[in-house]
Amino acid sequence: MSTLRFKALSETFNRKPVPVSEPERRSEIFGKNVFNEHAMRQYLTKDSFKSVMEAVVKGTKIDRNIADHISTGMKEWAINKGATHYTHWFQPLTGATAEKHDAFFETVEGGLAIEKFGGGQLVQQEPDASSFPNGGIRNTFEARGYTAWDPTSPAFIYGTTLCIPTVFVAYTGEALDNKTPLLRALQSVDQAATAVVKYFDKNVTKVIATLGWEQEYFLIDKSLAAARPDISLAGRTLLGHSSAKGQQLDDHYFGSIPVRVLNFMRDLETECMLLGIPVKTRHNEVAPNQFELAPIFEEANLAVDHNSLLMDVMDKVADRHNFKVLFHEKPFAGINGSGKHNNWSLATDTGTNLLSPGSTPMKNLQFLTFFINTIKAVNDYEELLRASIASASNDHRLGANEAPPAIISVFIGTQLTEVLNELEKVTDGKLSPEEKTELKLNVVGKIPEIMLDNTDRNRTSPFAFTGNKFELRAVGSTANCANPMTVLNAVVAKQLIDFKAEVDALIAEKDMKKDDAIFNVLREYIKQSKRIRFEGDGYGQAWEKEAKKRGLSNYKTTPQALKAKVSKKAIALYEELGIMNKVEIEARHEIEVEEYAKRIQIEGRVLGDIARNHVIPTAIRYQNILIENVRGLKEIYGTSFKKVAAEQMHLIESISEHIEKINKGINQMIDERKKANTLEDMEKRAFAYCDKVKPYFDVIRYHCDKLELLVDDELWPLAKYRELLFTK
Ligand code: ADP
Ligand code: MG
Predict the structure, then answer these.
(1) How many structural domains compose the chain?
(2) Average per-residue pLDDT for the chain
(3) What is the reported pLDDT for 706?
(4) Which residue CA neighbors atom 11 of ligand 1 most closely?
(5) CA pair distance 34, 83, nearest whole angstrom
(6) Which positions ≥6 away from 706 have C-beta within 8 Å?
(7) Of 694, 707, 668, 706, nearest in space to 604 by CA
(8) Residue 443 has pLDDT above 90, yes or no
(9) Same domain, 562 and 631
(10) CB 297 near ligand 1, within 6 Å
(11) Could you tell me if the CB of 607 is within 6 A of ligand 1?
């Protein structure tokens, strides 16, 4: 066994759980490190407090004088809690979070120092951000970028640093981050949904989108992970023969959580509590060493920030417990990968969940309005939604052998399907009193009862209605939720705007009653969006065929899927809603295709290195042992040695064959990489990496994995699947 593998394994076997101390009650520490309403009331003047709250609720601007007061209060609070530095905390287009710490400390005359943090530093900063991806925006405009405070996501202390959530934009106004378009989409959906809710409830003045994510991940022992260059550099295994035991016994899902892991989770949850991330659920997932964590849902922008923060906290806490967290969508071949379900709904400021049926027919009509409009929005923009979850790593789930498929469809369950079928029969034009009574009593009126025993669950659907929310299951576990949330909220906003215009037109021009008009428009939507509804098995070949007939897209790779992001339709949508302009949209596409090409490039290099520097030399060493053995047998048995040495000689040959194929594969892959790198057009380069380079991964891997089975375990240098997956 290689020294590295031996060392890693022995370290793993000797691990003891790292003890954690838990607070008496979690509720007492919840949000302790967050500059939330409670802290603001303590540290801000009445005016300052009011001004922040107005900015949060109404989106009003904060006056510079007031900002000075706020920063003073915030600084006092932070310093009292031991903070020494502050940072604008933002989400550039790398998908991760970015921070640059500055000390509160400042020198003054007389060799003295003070702690300083002014309104200017709170509101706006200019990080030297020339190395963040910008898709050409900042080159074109010669503009610098700046970060600006987002008061809707409260500041928090992480470690000893006060973190201020901000947007990141170019001086010319173009968004350079994930948060800016999200905030704009959320504002659009608020306006559009509030206008529609007013048909049913005049008291509503604001609608917020809610998001509850579910984060799946793998936990691997730190030493074992470090002994694998592929895990260290690409976040996943690029080779490795499957373990004899995988997940076939279903004995991990919801199983008892190993002590080491549980201690990690408890420690993590304590950190989350302090940071105000309302984590609630933890359990084992299907694959060995795979787990999930889910919070109570929150307003979407805050939930997105919390997920980004969580991923960072997880890395750090895992390290304390000698684990490495793998967020990759498919770290191991042959067993389940990880996703990040995005549970989504709309809620009013009066406390109503718009995707939850109510107690009266009118409330249910409101539910149906939002329910059907969402389905219609997904139907009309399925390609854009697919694009929003596309990434090199998520390609291993979508369209590969894992749920959900790359085809976007909506699952609603048999009973709601029946309701929609009934509604589809609504008379064209004004409804008779009998028809209305029938509808109210037997269709719309029955919904609450239906929902009570809504037990339908379809695990293969990418977008499923689950009783009081939709669940977008296609999001990848590494993703920043801002991307899919921007798209989903934008398309629903656009849909609600169109809906209102149509209903108002029927009322004004056809003299219809409001209910009649709503029923009429919804009926048409049900018909128009039928193709997106699918209740069957999303894995099967049959669905691929059927979806094709229905005209639904089925983009299996990221470069293909991303095209929808720069389609005329997408640009029109974003420009109409003021979410992004053409320059911003195209810049993002450029960044994403480039990132795709780079990721595949890195994986190709790592795979080539491991195959050449680890696998082949090990195979040769073992082959030499065999050769030595055959030589010995020849000495003993003379000319009849072939009979006793047959197996060994066969092995020697097999090893040579595999080595030859690996070398050939690597050479061809390198040739393709060289060709791809000459392509100046980033989209073309991404396609070349996808279609020409990536296919060699499977070929090379196949032969490496065969060698893993042939070669003496003692010589094999890389931690094996069984060790990575079954060490607790
Ligand atoms: P599962 O889908 O695995 O059965 P749960 O029922 O525990 O999981 O819920 C999943 C997630 O749905 C949680 O994060 C929860 O906060 C979220 N959720 C529940 N209601 C809503 C809602 N109205 N809006 C957004 N998310 C919600
Ligand atoms: Mg779920």
Answers:
(1) 3
(2) 92
(3) 97
(4) 212
(5) 12
(6) 241, 654, 658
(7) 694
(8) no
(9) no
(10) yes
(11) no
